[in-house]
Specification:
- This protein has 110 residues and is mostly helical.
- The protein has a two-stranded parallel sheet with strand order 1-2.
């Protein structure tokens, strides 16, 4: 099994035996490839909606970028909101502005 690189995530993760390699056929509604933040979040949301989900990971959970980042929540876009407001209709700019904090809120609730 591929080990994590030295990182805060690897040092603070709960220890457990590696999952066995998949050797049988599984039936599911959705197969998620990759057990990083995006894959695990997608799988969790799908399971909560009643889907049968299988997550496949070639290394370990959080092996790639998800296990190596600084864990920051950045409430912004690549442009300031005033630039967005100047280039979008008011309703669309308000929607985009409200979405700035939605991702962080979801993370905190989890």
């Amino acid at each position: 099994m591929t080990e994590h690189v030295n990182s805060y995530y690897a040092a603070s993760a709960n220890k457990h035996a590696p999952y066995p390699t998949l050797t049988e056929q599984l039936e599911c509604d959705v197969c998620v490839i990759g057990a990083g933040y995006t894959g695990l979040s997608s799988a969790l949301h799908l399971v909560e909606k009643g889907y049968r989900v299988v997550v496949l990971e070639a290394a370990r959970v959080g092996f790639g970028a998800s296990g190596r980042n600084g864990g920051q929540i950045v409430n912004s876009y690549s442009r300031d909101i005033d630039t967005i407001e100047a280039n979008c209709p008011p309703d669309q700019a308000r929607l985009l502005g409200s979405m700035l904090f939605e991702g962080g809120q979801i993370i905190r609730e989890r």
